[in-house]
Design brief:
Number of domains: 1
Helix content: 10-25%
Structural class: mainly beta
Distance between the termini: 9 Å
Number of helices: 9
Strand order of the largest sheet: 1-2-3-4-5-6-7-8-9-10-11-12-13-14-15-16
Protein name: Carbohydrate porin
CATH class: Mainly Beta
Largest sheet: 16 strands, antiparallel, barrel
CATH architecture: Beta Barrel
GO molecular function: porin activity
Pfam family, one: OprB
Oligomer: single chain
Strand content: 35-45%
Keywords: Signal
CATH topology: Porin
CATH superfamily: Carbohydrate-selective porin OprB
Signal peptide: 1-24
Order of helices and strands: HHHEEHEHEEHEEHEHEEEEEHEEE
Length: 482
């Protein structure tokens, strides 16, 4: 399938009527492998996975290979992303940077393959290339793109999924990426900035950023649909995909360049989420009003691993003290809670795809273990509103990450002892304006503009010794489905 119209994902599909919900949950969408920049169909109880259509892929039916594979239960997909980013003002170093990614995924439907009902085997791999624009030119906490990651050619996910009780219950076991199902906002995922996918409060507060793109971790995910409008999900995975220490001079991809380390040496990550579908128009105006569907979610995570204190060392002194051992005090266990709201707020008429949608996501984390204890993102997406461009989407979104009390105190300690310079950390805000044009059924172009203030949380430019200036970033994303 093309990227356009695809990534409702298991999150939306699981909110449908029981039969459709679980089948969509068992068979991931093609675009579940993409971390950002994916347009989403609106939440609705009648959503079903679109049928396979060779016209939405560059290679079509691949000279008859795709229909033959499909008859045997095999679906092989490939996607390519090319991005170019430019710093036009502020930041660290003006100029342009390229990054790119090619992904391949194979899905085996066990019913079509050998008569085993309601089962699916999935394996995927990534080839990530280019340089980090955020690290080298911008200096921000939030990467400008989900594809701004360490270069590697790596295994991504390997899992087996099985449905039970008419697919009302769905279980996956294997090496899992949790950010396609948990903590995700369907509308936020349209934007390119990485924080609108897997947010700063997880990517910075967990080991290796947790089981999120481009990493996965060994574990189990359970999804249950007791009612057509309600989904309950839970997962238990290893909490450290690359197996390294919390603080390390080595990059995550250096520790596990191939994605085959399968670490089990730290702690366990427990995640739970409840999702509820509702029709706001019917609730407010009656059954004859144009449907305004939405999904409302509440969830949380607990990590049983050991986490370093941002301020105190192992002897109870201040880490900023020149006499400190430099070894942080360790705390056992860590937690975070979150809410996510995706809601359509306007529709042209009954059945129309011309819509306006809003999203809000907020997180709260333990203050004694984490650098970032609160985070908020919000924004609007506008679907099919431009004349003559029925498949295009544009949107505007904002996000902010707030330092915890101990992290701010540690910075003030460092300034008092003279072991570091600069002002105490402050919130980093970013706003993104993006437009996605469906050039063909298999090619999307997405020009993008982002503005950052409080860049790096008030970090200083190593060349000037002054705080990094507010930055203007422009970019272009090209996504091709083969």
């Amino acid at each position: 399938m093309s990227v356009a119209g695809w990534r409702a994902g298991v999150v939306i599909a699981a909110l449908m009527a029981a039969g459709n919900a679980a089948r969509a949950a068992s068979h991931p969408l093609v675009t579940d492998i993409l971390p950002s920049g994916v347009p989403l169909p609106v939440p609705a109880p009648t959503f079903v996975l679109p049928p396979d259509d060779a016209g939405t892929e560059l290679l079509g039916d691949a000279w008859g290979a795709r229909p033959w594979l499909d008859r045997h239960g095999v679906r092989l997909t490939a996607q390519d992303v090319e991005e170019l980013w430019g710093l036009t003002g502020g930041g660290l170093n003006r100029g342009a940077t390229y990054d790119g990614m090619t992904a391949m995924a194979l899905l085996l439907d066990t019913n079509a393959a050998f008569g085993w009902h309601d089962g699916a085997f999935n394996i995927s791999a990534l080839q990530i290339r280019g340089r980090s624009f955020t690290d080298e030119r911008l200096g921000a906490l939030n990467p400008v793109s989900g594809y701004d990651a360490g270069r590697s050619t790596r295994l991504f996910e390997v899992w087996y999924g099985q449905g039970f009780f008419g697919d009302r219950l769905d279980i996956r076991v294997g090496s899992l990426d949790l950010d396609t199902e948990f903590l995700v906002s369907q509308n936020a995922s349209f934007f390119l900035n990485a924080s609108f996918g897997w947010p700063l409060s997880t990517s910075s507060n967990l080991y290796s950023g947790g089981p999120s793109w481009p990493y996965s971790a060994l574990g189990t995910r359970v999804k249950w649909s007791p009612l057509s409008a309600l989904v309950l999900m839970g997962a238990v995975t290893d909490d450290n995909p690359t197996g390294g220490p919390f603080y390390s001079s080595d990059g995550d991809t250096q520790r596990d360049a191939s994605g085959t380390r399968f670490s089990l040496g730290n702690g366990a990550l427990f995640v739970g989420e409840a999702q509820y579908w509702l029709d706001l128009a019917r609730n407010l105006s009656g059954k004859d009003a144009p449907a305004l569907p939405g999904t409302w979610k509440i969830g949380g995570l607990f990590d049983s691993g050991a986490f370093p204190d941002p301020r105190y060392d192992a002897r109870g002194g201040l880490l900023a003290d020149p006499d400190s051992s430099g070894d942080p005090r360790e705390h056992r266990g860590n937690w975070m809670t979150y809410v996510v709201i995706d809601q359509m707020i306007w529709r042209e008429k009954v059945g129309s795809d011309k819509t306006i949608n809003v999203f809000v996501r907020a997180t709260a984390s333990n203050a004694t273990r984490n650098r970032f204890t609160r985070e908020v993102q919000a924004g609007f997406t506008f679907d099919e509103l431009l004349p003559g461009r029925p498949d295009d989407t544009f949107g505007i979104a904002w996000g902010v990450g707030l330092y915890g009390r101990r992290a701010a105190q540690a910075a003030r300690d460092a300034a008092r002892f003279g072991t570091a310079t600069g002002a105490p950390p402050r919130p980093e805000h970013h706003i993104e304006l993006t437009y996605q044009a469906a050039v063909t059924h298999w090619l999307n172009l997405q020009p993008d503009v982002q503005y950052f203030w409080g860049v790096g949380g008030g970090a200083t430019d190593g060349d000037t010794g002054r705080p990094i200036r507010n930055a203007v970033v422009t970019g272009l994303n090209m996504t091709t489905t083969f």
